[in-house]
Amino acid sequence: MKKALPLLLSITLIAILIVQLQPVKQAVVMVKGSITKPNLINKDSLTIKSRVNLPEGYSRVNYPAGSFQDYLRNYKLKPYGSKIINYDNSEYFWQGGHIGILEVPVPSNGLQQCADALIRIRSEYLWEKNRTDEIGFKFTSGHYCSWTKYAEGFRPKINGNKVTFHKTASADHSKTNFYKYLNLIYTYSGTLSLYHELTPITYASNLKIGDMMIKGGTPGHIVMICDEIINAQGEKKYLIFQGNTPAQSVHLVRNLEDDVYSPWYKLENDKRIPVSNYVFGSAKFVRFK
User: Distance between CA atoms of 243 and 158, rounded to whole angstroms?
Assistant: First the structure.
C-alpha cells in the first residue's frame, strides 16, 4: 500500500492541473480579493431603465423625451419575482429566463402571442401620442388593415387568400373598439407578415431601441430591444423583452450565456443568438416604419 502512495499522489496532482486548465464556463470578477458576479439587477425598481444597472464603462444612448425609444426604456414592470402567467392564468412551465414582467395585460382569448404583444405595445404608444392614423398592419396575405378604416366600420371579408373590406359596422373610435381591432390583427398577422412588412436593418451597428430581432415563419419568433448602452470604443449592448406562445406575460429576458453582462446582449447580424427559451439561428432585424 505504501508503494502505491507516490503513484496515487501523482495521479491526484495531474487531475488537479487538468481541472485548473479547463476553460472558465462562468465569467466572474475579483472584488477585494474575493470572487463574485457583478450585480446588474435592482430588485426594488419598477421600470426597465431602473431595473437594470449599467456595466462598468457603459452609458445609455440618449433619445428624445416622448419618443418610442424613451417610452420603451421607461416601461413599467411588475415587482421583481413576478411570474410569467399564461393566458389561462396558469404559470408558464419555466420561470428561469426573465428578470422582469412588463405591465401588459394578457387577454384570456389566447391571441396575444409573441408578435402580437409587440404589435400591441407599438399601437398603444401611437394611441397615447394621438398618432392613431399610423396604426395599421398587414395580414399574412399581404392586405393592409388600418385602425382608421376599422374605426369607421370597415371589416374584412376573407375567402382563402382573398381579402376585401366592406362597411358593415357603425363608426366607433373608442378604446374598447381599438382592442377589438387588435384582436383582429392578432388573428391574421404574425411573425411572417411582420418579416415581410417591416423595414429590414442591414447592419446591427444601426440598431436602436424599438427594433426587433425576428424569425419569420409559422412558427417563428420575434423580440424587441428596450434599452441601449455604449462604451468609449463604440461597442453597444441591449436589453430585450418578448411575448411568447402560448400567449403569456411579456417579460424582460436574461442573457443566459453571459454572467458578466446579463441581462445585456451583444447583437450581431446572422449570428446564433439564444434568447431565453428560443434560439435565433441566424439573427435578422426589422424596424417599425
Answer: 27
**Distance (Å, whole) CA 238 – CA 227:** 5
Domain boundaries, the chain: 48-131+193-287
pLDDT at 275 over 80: yes
In this structure, the number of other CB atoms found within 10 A of the CB of residue 111 comes to 15
> Three-state SS for 97?
coil
Does pTM top 0.90 for this prediction?
A: no
H helix count then E strand count, the chain: 7, 16
State how far the Cα of 8 lies from the Cα of 12, in Å rounded to an integer.
Answer: 6
Amino acid at 20: Q
Residue found by looking up cell 435578422 in the block: 284
Q: How many residues does the chain have?
A: 289
**Does the structure show a pLDDT above 80 at 30?**
no
C-alpha cell recorded at residue 170: 357603425
